[in-house]
Amino acid sequence: MKEYTVAPNKDATGWYVKVEDIAPTDHYEKKDKAIAKAEEMAEENKPSKLYILDKYHEVQEEKSY
After folding, report:
1. Integer Cα distance of 28 and 30 in angstroms
2. Does 61 score more than 80 pLDDT?
3. Which of 1, 28, 50, 54 is most buried as measured by Cβ atoms within 10 A of its Cβ?
4. What is the pLDDT of residue 21?
């Protein structure tokens, strides 16, 4: 099962989409766009999980596909 993460950058001025806790794949200025891309990637690679982190890098939301 693949795991995807949406997490803020160090200053919380942008958002990264990461796959399997490897280096970030994409950077987005808006959280909504990062979440939409991560959801699309998770949907295409079922079964998978998506974790959305807050500025403290704590899990804010978890979704399964």
Report:
1. 5
2. yes
3. 50
4. 72
Which DSSP string do the residues of 21-46 spell out, in sequence order? TSS--EEESSHHHHHHHHHHHHHHTS
**pLDDT given at position 10:** 86
Given phi > 0 = left and psi -120 to 50 = alpha, else beta, which region is 37? alpha
* Whole-number Cα distances in Å, 39 to 10, 11, 31: 22, 23, 12
Total residue count of the chain as it appears in this document: 65
Residue with tokens 């949406």: 6
In this prediction, residue 26 carries a pLDDT of 87
Distance in angstroms (rounded) separating the CA atoms of residues 57 and 65: 22
- pTM summary value: 0.88
Average pLDDT in the 4-26 region? Answer: 89
